[in-house]
UniProtKB/TrEMBL annotation:
Entry-linked Gene3D superfamilies: At2g23090-like
Bias type Basic and acidic residues, positions: 53-62
Name of encoding gene: LOC102817843
Source organism of this protein record: Chrysochloris asiatica
Record-given protein name: Zinc finger protein 706
Subcellular localization(s) per the UniProt record: Cytoplasm; Nucleus
Length: 76
């Protein structure tokens, strides 16, 4: 019977450990990705993570529109 009791204790210990790991892994990837998108295109309202990508987007998608002043000094 000792093996049966040890098995139950082991299962309980493992369940507690799994619950603890699940709490640590609670990382919201959607919120983190949304927070990383800080630049917004003034024409099409598309969000981008950095000014280099923003400038590339603006030059390729909106070539006739004048470049915004915040992108004037960005190197591609």
């Amino acid at each position: 019977m000792a093996c049966g009791q040890q098995k139950i204790q082991s299962q309980q210990k493992n369940a507690k450990k799994q619950a603890g790991q699940k709490k640590k892994q609670r990382y919201d990837q959607k919120a983190a990705a949304k927070a990383a998108l800080i630049y917004t295109c003034t024409v099409c309202r598309t969000q981008m993570p950095d000014p280099k990508t923003f400038k590339q987007h603006f030059e390729s998608k909106h070539p006739r529109t004048p470049l915004p002043p915040e992108l004037a000094d960005v190197q591609v």
